[in-house]
Design goal:
- By secondary structure, the chain is an alpha+beta fold.
- α2 links the parallel β4 and β5.
- It has a six-stranded antiparallel sheet with strand order 20-21-22-29-24-27. Strands 8-11-9-10-12 form a five-stranded mixed barrel. Strands 14-16-18-19 form a four-stranded mixed sheet, with no helix packed on it.
- It has three domains: about 260 residues, Alpha-Beta Complex (Spore Coat Polysaccharide Biosynthesis Protein SpsA, Chain A); about 55 residues, no CATH class; about 110 residues, Jelly Rolls (Sandwich), CATH 2.60.120.
């Protein structure tokens, strides 16, 4: 069995903490067993490890999330990165070709696909082996995990089993699906043993490889990457699940929740205040999550979420937070905060001038022992001011030590990198006519290799 964790998302539902680079699964607002803050992806990865399944797991993601995943989970994660964002069918197809062509996985191997942000208890992962058993026993094309509903939810999709499929069977044959019904319809479906669809499913690798062959799409990974932009932008549900003739569902009668909006996420946050702020005694069922350095005070409001980050400030009735994505659908603001494999950065200020110049100021944190890639920019000059810590800088082949108080000029086209000997903080001022994150050419990632390049 191989497990493919899907990590994607546009980052709008939990704005302003989430953005296009930091989707909801990366927000560190949950607690691990030791009481330390962890993100949804860290929680799932920890649970997979506790279930003894980590050596079977891969993360399928977009290239924009590779840095933050490495930063949160480490550099030994097996990543399958999309060249560009498409949809779940192309993403799963790419993962399938990687397993088939690069890993040599047997066509008879069971592939389990699940979201990386599932909020479940640890026993959920023991159900994954039941998916493999359901495929073998039922002869189905697909096997899904269906969660036993605890109330008639109007925001979840439902799996509809055949009426004769009793709860005493190890799996149920599926006759159809229903997406986000009204309350009365949901109540009626639950009486007929309907299950919540939690987006976890399994298939034999040859199912998807044969679909690719039938559609004259590549089955070799490198060729799939080259043609990825021409693949149909369609979900796996529409392209595969709805066309499957035989589907089985394994029942799960345990804890499962979709933490996709602020009102559901705050139900699992065990403290009302994260960051600087004050909540009055007259305030009921309110949460403040503040990533800014200025305090937030909430007085007399109830059932609200107040979230603040460099990307913006949200004050909302919790019941209305599912509408946040729709409210922001036309927003094109660049992310003002990002996590990377080496640390994180925050945009402090951005200005444009009548002559076309742009000036952007960043605070950059590089964790001890980590380094930026060896890189250069074509559209901007940079001035670095080291404000805390010690490290080493490579600038156009020269290596020098830096510490708090040092100032360096990094002109356009200059090849540069920095490594933190201790936690290192730098204030960077960029000046140019087009200040975008895409203006970067990476030459090398590993510090030992960077240092060797300096000697040539």
């Amino acid at each position: 069995m191989k497990i493919v964790l899907l990590s994607g998302g546009s980052g709008k539902r939990l704005w302003p903490l989430s953005n296009d680079s930091r989707s909801k699964q990366f927000l560190k607002v949950l607690k691990d067993p030791a009481g330390r803050q962890e993100s949804m992806i860290q929680r799932v990865w920890r649970q997979i490890g506790e279930a003894g399944l980590r050596e079977h797991a891969y993360v399928a993601t977009g290239k924009a999330q590779v840095e933050i995943i490495s930063g949160q989970l480490g550099n030994d994660i097996r990543l399958i990165a999309e060249p560009e964002r498409r949809d779940t069918f192309p993403a799963i197809a790419l993962a399938a070709t990687y397993l088939y062509a690069m890993e040599g996985v047997s066509l008879n191997e069971t592939i389990v696909v699940m979201p990386v942000d599932s909020y479940v208890s640890g026993d959920f992962f023991r159900q994954l082996e039941r998916l493999e058993g359901a495929l073998e026993t039922s002869g189905a094309d697909l096997a899904l995990i269906g969660v036993q509903p605890t109330y008639p939810s109007e925001k979840y999709g439902y799996i509809l089993p055949y009426p004769e499929e009793g709860s005493d069977r190890p799996f149920a044959r599926v006759r159809g699906f229903r997406e986000k019904p009204g309350k009365e319809e949901a109540e009626a479906m639950i009486r007929e043993a309907a299950l919540w669809n939690c987006g976890v499913f399994a298939f034999k690798l040859d199912l998807l490889i044969n679909i690719l062959i039938a559609q004259e799409l590549p089955i070799h990974y490198e060729e799939m990457r080259k043609r990825y932009g021409s693949l149909p932008q369609i979900s796996f549900d529409y392209e595969v699940v709805e066309k499957a003739n035989r589907i089985a569902a394994v029942r799960y009668d345990g804890d499962w929740k979709d933490l996709g909006t602020w009102n559901t996420l705050t139900e699992e946050i065990d403290t009302a205040l994260i960051g600087k702020g004050m909540i009055s005694e007259r305030t009921k069922n309110a949460h403040v999550i503040n990533e800014l350095e200025v305090p937030i005070a909430v007085l007399g409001l109830s059932d609200v979420i107040v979230a603040a980050s460099p990307d913006g400030i949200l004050v909302a009735d919790k019941a209305l937070t599912p509408l946040v994505k729709e409210m922001l659908k036309h927003s094109e603001q660049r992310p003002m905060y990002e996590e990377r494999r080496w640390g994180r950065y925050r945009v402090l200020d951005y200005r444009t001038y009548p002559d076309g110049r742009e000036v952007l100021t960043k605070w950059i944190f590089i964790a001890s022992g980590r380094n930026l890639s060896y890189q250069y920019h074509s559209l901007r000059d940079e001035v670095w001011t080291v404000v805390a810590g010690r490290g080493s800088v490579v600038l156009d082949g020269r290596q020098l030590a830096v510490s708090a108080g040092d100032v360096l000029l990094v002109p356009k086209e200059a090849r540069h990198s920095v490594r933190a000997d201790t936690d290192l903080e730098i204030v960077e001022v960029q000046t140019g006519t087009l200040l975008i994150e895409e203006d970067i050419v990476r030459l090398e990632l590993e510090w030992d290799e960077i240092v060797q390049l300096c000697k040539t």
